[in-house]
Each structure stands twice: as C-alpha cells, then as structure tokens.
Amino acid sequence: MRELKVFAVVVIVTLITYWGVEPFAHSQMHPHIDAPDYLYSDVDGLKGIVGNAEAGAELVAANCTACHSIESQGFPKIMDNATAAASYGVVPPDLGSAGKLYDANYLAAFIKDPVTASKLAHVYTGEKAHPMPAYNWMSDEEIANIVAYLQSIAPAEMSNKEVFTNACSRCHGIKYADMMGGSMAAQTPKADIKAYMGKLPPDLSQYIKSRGENYLHEFINDPQKHLHGTAMPRVGLTKASEDQVVAYMTEVGDSKKAERNSTGLNVLAYLVIFAIFAWLWKAKIWREVH
User: Fold this and answer.
1) Which of 180, 190, 198, 233 is buried most, with the most CB atoms less than 10 Å from its CB?
2) Which of 208, 168, 201, 200 is nearest to 184 (CA)?
3) How many C-beta neighbours within 10 Å does residue 251 have?
4) How distant, in Å, are the alpha carbons of 76, 174, 188 from that of 93?
C-alpha cells in the first residue's frame, strides 16, 4: 500500500508539471499553426470554369514550350539544366505531370500571377522579376483550357520517387537516396540556386527526422506559416501528391520506421509482462518476511 501511495504522488506531481509546462511550450515555443489548406481558398483560381483540353493544347504549345519541356508529348528540353539555370535561376519543370501534382485552382492562379500564388511578393518587389511572367492578360477561360490540357496529359499513377523528383528536386537534393550515383542531387546547380533563392536549399535526406511528418505537411503546403519571409515558394501540391513526397522522404530518411514501431510494441508488451511477474515475486517475498 505504501508503494501505491508513493506511485500516486509521483503521478500527480508529474501531471501537474506537465500541464504547467506544456501550454507554455505550445503557445510560445511552438505557436499554433493553421491546418494545411489543400483547397487553396485564397487564390484566384478556376472560378468554377471547366476548360477545354484541345484548346488548351494550342495555348500551351504557343506560350509554354519556349521554356518548359513536355517530353511525354514530344516537346523536349531546349537547353540542358546548367544552361536553363543560368538563364532562369532555376531549372524550369517539365509540365507532363503538372496536372497531377498541383491543385487545379492553384495551377490556374499560378499561371495568372506566379508571385501572388506562390506567396513571394516579399521577394519579387519590382527590382527582381520572377522568372515566369504573369499570364493575367489571358481570359479565365483560356487559363482553364491550359489547366484542362495539363490534367489530360498527366499520368494516372506516379511513384513516390517520381512525385518527389518532379515536385522538389529542381531545388532540393536528397542524397541519401543515391549516395554513390548522385542521381538525386538537386537539378539546378548549387551556385545558380543559391543566387536564385538567396541561400542554398537544404538536402532533405533527414528532414523527416529533424522536422517530423506534421511539420513537413504544414511547411510544404505553405512555407510562410513556419518561416515567414522565406524564399521558398508555396508550390501548390494536392494532398495526395504531398503525402507521396513525405512518404518518399520517410523511405529515404527513416527506412526502419515500421520495423522500429513493431519492435517498440514488442518491448512494451515484454515490460508489461515483466512488471506483472516482478509484482507477483515481490508480493511472495514480502509474505514470507511477514
């Protein structure tokens, strides 16, 4: 009975300490962040317009393929990565998967005004121009047609690695995915991306451990929430695409997670069983003593 009283006192003191510290930790050290907005409700998007993919194909060919490749549709790169990065600051993405990776409303808003959609008005203040011009001179119907075309040519399925490569690797490397071959290095040369972003974007190999899954979802959806003033754009991924990005980061940076979780459950079960036998043994010894 005495041991139970001591245990109860320890539990009460621990709970009081926890509830005294935890609110401070969350309000001051980890302030509240709004949940990710996968509807991108703040953007000037499609406005409910359903585009025509055939008409969009003509617009894309006339307005986009001078900078962007669409290799699946026969529009190859017009320059290598190093030349493209020197010209634009960052390697322009291939648009073959854009209709799958990016939210349709965000994609429309980005075409109209990339600076506003990506929340980079603090970076492009007039003295520095965004490498992609705004197509706000187009009608809403024309932009909806472009989005419809990009969706029509997008692959139905993509692996986690493919999604990460298309969505993130123009700026970020993830070297632990291929330490020897170097195939998962950032596509844009370091000097160019550093000049473009203001600093060298980090390698993402261990970010699943250093930041955690919840932080990554919030940050990828809107970097400004956690790092106000950052030069990283809001990229506009759908929830499904973002899940695949985080899943790939987990595959690379925490490949033993499932095994560790399983082992942890086994260890806890062992400790519970051991505690029961220890209690029974203690009770037996003290009965003999008294």
Assistant:
1) 233
2) 168
3) 17
4) 12, 18, 11
